[in-house]
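Our collaborator T.R. sent over the components below with a one-line note: 'Predict the complex.' Nothing else. No constraints on interfaces, no templates requested, no preferences about which chain binds where. So this is a plain run: every listed entity goes in together, and whatever single assembly comes back becomes the starting point for the next discussion.
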Amino acid sequence: MQGSKIAIIGAGSLAFSLSMVTDFSLTKSIADSRVVLMDIDPKRLDAVYSLTKRYSQELGSRLQVEKTMDMKEAIRDSNFVINSAFADGYDGLGQMIEEAEKYGYYRGLDATEWNMVNNYTIYTGHKQYQIALGIARTIEEVAPDGWMLEAANPLLEITTMLLRKTKVKVVGFCHGFHAYAGLARVAGIANPDELDFQVVGLNHDVWLTRLKQNNNDLYPVIDEWLRYRAEAFWSSYVLDVWEEQFSRAAADMYRRYGLYPIGDTTRSGPWTYHRDLKTKQKWYGPVGGVDSEIGWTMRLLRNRRNLDRLFRLATNTEVSPLKELPPVKSGEQFADFIDCVTNGAERRLVLNVRNQGALKHIPEDVAVEVPVQMVGDKMTVEPLERLPRTVEKFALIPRWERMEWALEAFDALQEGGAPAYKEALANILMTDARTHSTEQVSSVLDSIMSMPYNRPEKAA
Amino acid sequence: MQGSKIAIIGAGSLAFSLSMVTDFSLTKSIADSRVVLMDIDPKRLDAVYSLTKRYSQELGSRLQVEKTMDMKEAIRDSNFVINSAFADGYDGLGQMIEEAEKYGYYRGLDATEWNMVNNYTIYTGHKQYQIALGIARTIEEVAPDGWMLEAANPLLEITTMLLRKTKVKVVGFCHGFHAYAGLARVAGIANPDELDFQVVGLNHDVWLTRLKQNNNDLYPVIDEWLRYRAEAFWSSYVLDVWEEQFSRAAADMYRRYGLYPIGDTTRSGPWTYHRDLKTKQKWYGPVGGVDSEIGWTMRLLRNRRNLDRLFRLATNTEVSPLKELPPVKSGEQFADFIDCVTNGAERRLVLNVRNQGALKHIPEDVAVEVPVQMVGDKMTVEPLERLPRTVEKFALIPRWERMEWALEAFDALQEGGAPAYKEALANILMTDARTHSTEQVSSVLDSIMSMPYNRPEKAA
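Returned assembly:
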């Protein structure tokens, strides 16, 4: 039997594509797949092609790796299409944040309650929506039975938009839920990778509804850590970027809302944790979390260092990438999902799928992040533990509301062009805690919308 | 046949009770009713009893007017129970606002997006919720077939809470929708009281979805007024309190959200219209609207003057109240509703009833304000005109969200007492644009919760 065809759109992200190829190679049951890398940047595409092809060959994998700059050809007859495109790039984001801060919008226009992340946009992310919609429309046309595996941010908005606007079988993927194990490790729980856990919510707004070992509830162990040892931990250990899971902010959210926030959730919450650098440092340690101006710079440097290294490996064919990068599974769930669908395997995954009643106060046509039992391509949402009303009302409804605003802004752009888009963004900023006048809103939007990286145009 | 028994709880409000008795007297088909006035303040109860009894006698009405301080007796076997209780009173509200402003919460803790009103509380309104719930429980016990006609604020929260928690047939009443006629008058439309209108939304967040005369759309006439004459109106006419319908703020909301806001809706919107007195004056004229510190003082003075006058009429039995107060129908819909239910009359009313799909993004168990065709006690929600997504997403969802927060705070109080209530209020204030630190939240809540008028106690 011929293996699956898997297209990766936006494959120029070397680290991500290398993870995919590694995972596919190490998952024997799907290692006969054909992987088509697609990107619009020829230099990056050549690099990722060279690197992943040599890597899989060195691994002795049967994986077929190909490349193309033609999206439609990449997608045609694919069984799976992974969207990892990142249109604005960190440069565009950085420029937008810098510009917005001139008008009083600390950390950029898109930083908002329950979405205080700086590495993607929700309101001004029109290019991300346009790309994702373009991919989905192409799947409808040339690979109507294919699955769209959505990896690009903003994941909640994009997955929901595709569920609403297209007929494509779309599933959203995020590895953030794994962070519960790190929390368990810091709290001193043995074998943190073998726990019975349940994480539930909206992407990047997910909560630990269950943590058990041998049927014993482990929340009391976390409570004990918080009571007797966390203060000593916070005063002696300097939290690095991506260690927000162990922060005072996360602990405070747990105290406030009744469940521990998991992964990227801990980067958010209301402005109370994020008002300015000093506030962020109080809650996230000296770095102020990955989304502060310090954390942002540190992340950029690390990304750059890592990218340079991968580029060197990609372009220097004398070196063995396998020697430099030992093969370990990435923790992403794409290979597992593809294995289930392709080979009828059974697995429990945490996926972003249509709500259908899992979260009570959130409409049915919204993508929720929930544990799903897969048997082949059948997906059954696991019965959920009770979610405290405080989490629903104070953390999930506000994030859902902002998703609706973000999708409304994109719809306005699609239907009415740049003026309608500006109007919608203005309506959103009118509710922003950083807004002091209508003039401020109008000028920041004029300024951001005329930046070269960001020209909003009506979709064709 | 014996007439209906109508209980008015919180009847000490002289103006409101007098309106009711006038309306019932002038609606011949229900003028044989028995009206039982109930209040906990004996002085006010005596006054309202004397005034309304003499007034209805002078009108030659068959209405039987009685009084009692016993709520259960008032409600027992009632066909209709009107709740108009106002527990905190203006003195309590005024103290709370003054205290909250010391901590940076301009116009009090409950001023919030789409609820910038100062004459009732939503988050700190626990006494209003407790009273309404007490009345509903009593109806369940001693008048299980009776209707509860909810008039007390916060109407959206109370009506929804009763729909969720009790079996009582509850309907919420507000006269604010009439303001569309004033708008039409100012815009120069002839016969403004004979228009085909539709007003839809959540109470105090309602929007003019239709305005027609002889099947002609009148929105273009409003547009013309805005384009050619409104600026001259605003610069020559000084808006009084309760004239927010004609304000620049209302016009800006129309421009922003796509429909004209009606009645109390125009007092709200995001902080952009309300940040400080100067901002309010820019949008509402020199008074700054009825909710500014100027408008608040003017309203208090007028209330006081009006109350003094009614008290004098009530206590001086030498004077004829009918000579002083010519009998006109109030514009409230209670008498009309009672007539429909009692006599099988047919009428179109604007009522607050269970959503059941009228507003798409709002859950079914929320009270929405919609035009209802009554035939006897059968209520059919009129087919709604299309509601722009902007109104739904930027004006209705945010108000609904705050309603959920308000009800969550009351539930927390009921279940966990004052500490849980404080926690819930803190979670709400964490998202408030006026909050700058966790300490600010904690101190303002300690201060407000220890004020004598406001001691939160768990319900018995």
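Summary for T.R.: The mean pLDDT of chain B is 95.
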